[in-house]
Amino acid sequence: MKTKLIKVTACNSEAIEEAADIIKNGGIVAFPTETVYGLGADGLNETACADIYEVKRRPPRKPLSLMVANREMIDEIAEVSPIAEELIKEFLPGPLTLILSKRSSVPDFVTAGEPTVGIRIPNNEIALALLRAANCPIAAPSANLSNEPAPVTAQEVYQSLNGKIPLILDGGACQFGISSTIVDLTHDKPVILRKGAINDFDIISTLKLK
Q1: What is the 3-state secondary structure (H, E, C) of the chain?
Q2: What is the pTM assigned to this prediction?
Q3: Domain limits at 38?
Q4: How many separate domains does the chain show?
């Protein structure tokens, strides 16, 4: 497989549509977010998500989180609690992934059999344009082989995945260069599972936790 690398802006609808068509047809593309580059496929398509695991050499026990374009799409894939609503209003779009109880629309394969799903609305115009064009939740772990550093430029993605995926959208260097913060909201109290681009104190302050 030959991997295309296309420089793109949010206004470059032709490149965005090409990437969206690949996703709609069960393929995988790499694209920028504000955190790191993501390796994206239709998050409700088990076969496409299986290809993500294969390309990344990702352990099957690790679930995939889903990116969505807007608040309405969250309701289609997850149950939103009042606490989740607070964090959504404060931090999304942004570099925060929320672990919520999933709806039946999300295949168990995608969540590694867990009854929960990670969701995020990225704060990146290229990523949002791709999500709107594909019109589906996109499973998008970092666009690298497992155990490699998460890529912050398209060239890093190319070095890792050249020949393994059909298309990389080059949107320049990522804003933060570190992964999103992950907060699990499926227990009695919120649990920060991964420190990332959003400061823990900001999350705690929002929820008024002691």
Answers
A1: CCCEEEECCCCCHHHHHHHHHHHHCCCCEEECCCCCCEEEEECCCHHHHHHHHHHHCCCCCCCCCEECCCHHHHHHHECCCHHHHHHHHHHCCCCEEEEEEECCCCCCCCCCCCCEEEEECCCCHHHHHHHHHHCCCEECCECCCCCCCCCCCHHHHHHHHCCCCCEEEECCCCCCCCCCEEEECCCCCCEEEECCCCCHHHHHHHHCCC
A2: 0.95
A3: 4-207
A4: 1
